[in-house]
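[RESIDUES AND BACKBONE]
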Amino acid sequence: MDILSSKGENVDTICNMTFNLKNPKEIRVWCKSVFSFEAMGLGKFTIESKNTEIAKVSVRGNRFTIRTCQAGTTDIIIANDLGKSIVLKCYSCSFANVWAELPELSSIYNNSVMVVAEDQLVANKIRKELGQCLLKRNKYIFAEGTNRVSVVYDNGEAIEGDYLWNVETQTLLLNFEGKTERYICDLQPEFPNLSLQNPRFIIALQQNFTTEYAIKYPKAGIKDIYTIHYIIALDDYWLTKK
């Protein structure tokens, strides 16, 4: 028998415990980002994160917001005023396993070199030099649970090193072959499937070379030099597993 509210509305319709999620059991979010979703019905809801160091949560009406703080996993508990509750597993993701510069990415995202300098001959020389470097790498393999990374080049050569991920500044440091590379990381919008089965995380890596080349070419009037290239996670889906 259906239960009706004082206004004659079906209570199950008002306090529907289903949500506009691709997966009703789990959510995958990039660490230090915000993700929102909604209940498929009206009602009074509460939401709780079992570990607020991983993710903080809030609710307004039937709209829920998750703000991830650092990488890890926590349970998100949603309850309504009818005594019903569900548990969502929230994965706050960062770099782990295999990331690659797939050729398919170039159909939407183009690796680029930005050079601002007064001497255009030097500027063109730098663009060519950095552009060739962008094409040499194929994969980055992050050993989960450690700080080790393997940088794999197109010729199959793998260079071992370590990495440091700063979630607050979204900065990735790669240390290998006696040098350190510093990247500012920028999460990209949800990506079309391309030839892949599921949408996945995509990160733009921006590396600044201004100081290095200003020293190398002190008379070239160098103002700003940086590269951007894109990598996609091969082992971690975008928000949910289908």
Q: What stands out?
A: The longest strand covers residues 222-237.
